[in-house]
From TrEMBL:
CDD domains: O-FucT_like (cd11296). One of its GO terms (molecular function) is transferase activity. Gene3D superfamilies: 3.40.50.11350. This is Uncharacterized protein. It comes from Phlebiopsis gigantea (strain 11061_1 CR5-6). InterPro entries: GDP-Fuc_O-FucTrfase.
């Protein structure tokens, strides 16, 4: 979204590493385990957002890393986001209106070096990503923008996908090898994989999170709310300021934290749909513990008809890939014939955004 602001205003987007903390240490701690304090975005994605080329004839300046920006722009114009927010004058403004306001404001600054004040608010407020009307207003622009159209995954992610492909899309003996030759054009690395059903199932902290969502009457994430998608969300009545009824809580949990029987029921529903014809392999994106994941696989197998069932826990990843494993899951989900995602998850919504941008048939994207 911020990259789109830069692109629309004719400026180079300045990107930084994915940063856990900025104390100059190499490692941080998460859940008692060491993790990298910073991960280069090039380990995750590719494309114009991290300095890749735009389409031929597009003269928009290429994105640059923050280290380079700091070197060539030692004294940038600092902009506090609250200034533009005051010009907009509406804390419920649509994403498109926010984009237009920022585009006009930045185009009015002569200094080629502009930086958003670190202690100011976000350009797009946190809540906008859960408010479909506000967020989806930007889709006609974003869906046609090279910031999204040319967004891809990094070589590291594609390598992990290829090594683990046998888990979710095994090559049959008579299938052509997915390796291009000098006589064969490159295959689309983001084409849908026939027969693949991907499930996104959050566990762990999502049990408490889903309860919290029920208590405050939350809706699906904005990019999970395209009107043409099946399984639309309607917030039930009976929720007020941190409290809800048991009936509402169970309604939320079924769609946010489904049980194994509820998951199996939904899978069977989708398999019998038009979009689900030909499904034969299941891949489960999940942070569940191995024992629970094994129980789910057993329950799915009992229904029969599946050639392979695998989960995130079975991926064979290098040391570097382990820290970007969620992106590997996202690529698999992006390429599914059918995806069943969690409407309250930002990871699901990012996959849905990528699927809608291709665009894939809306009935191939489902929710619990």
């Amino acid at each position: 979204m911020n990259a789109q602001v830069a692109y629309s205003s004719g400026r180079a987007f300045v990107y930084d590493n994915y940063t856990w903390n900025r104390d100059n240490t190499e490692y941080s701690e998460f859940s008692g385990k060491p993790i990298p304090s910073q991960i280069p975005l090039s380990a995750l994605i590719s494309g114009p957002l991290i300095g890749g080329p735009f389409v031929l004839g597009d003269e928009t300046p290429l994105s640059v890393h923050k280290e380079y920006f700091d070197e060539i722009c030692p004294h940038p114009t600092i902009v506090d986001t609250r200034i533009v927010a005051q010009l907009i004058g509406d804390d419920q403004a649509s994403a498109k209106r926010i984009l237009d306001a920022w585009t006009g404001y930045l185009r009015g600054i002569d200094d080629p070096c502009v930086e958003i004040a670190r202690d100011s608010d976000r350009i797009f407020d946190y809540y906008i990503y859960g408010q479909k009307a506000r967020l989806l207003s930007i889709w006609p622009v974003l869906s046609e923008s090279p910031t999204l159209r040319l967004l891809g995954w990094s070589p590291l992610i594609h390598a992990a996908f290829d090594v683990n492909r046998h888990l979710f899309a095994p090559i049959q003996p008579l299938d052509p090898l997915p390796i291009p030759t000098s006589l064969e054009p490159l295959r689309d690395p983001y084409a849908s994989i026939p027969g693949l059903l991907v499930l996104h199932i959050r566990r762990g902290d999502f049990e408490d999170h889903c309860t919290h969502l029920a208590q405050w009457g939350a809706a699906f994430n904005g990019f999970n709310s395209f009107p043409e998608l099946p399984d639309q969300w309607t917030t039930p009545p009976g929720t007020w300021k941190g409290e809800t009824t048991e009936e509402n809580l169970q309604f939320y949990l079924r769609r946010c934290f489904p049980s194994i029987p509820q998951i199996v029921e939904k899978v069977e529903e989708v398999r019998s749909s038009r979009a689900g014809q030909g499904l034969k392999n299941i891949y489960v994106m999940t942070n569940a513990k191995a024992r629970w994941a094994s129980q789910l696989k057993t329950a799915l197998r009992k229904k029969g008809g599946w050639e392979t069932i695998a989960t995130s826990r079975e991926l064979d990843l290098t040391r570097e890939q382990k820290y970007v494993a969620q992106a590997v899951d996202m690529l698999i989900g992006q390429r599914a014939q059918v995806l069943i995602g969690n409407g309250f998850s930002s990871l699901t919504s990012d996959i849905v955004m990528l699927r809608m941008a291709r665009p894939l048939s809306p009935d191939s994207t489902r929710f619990w």
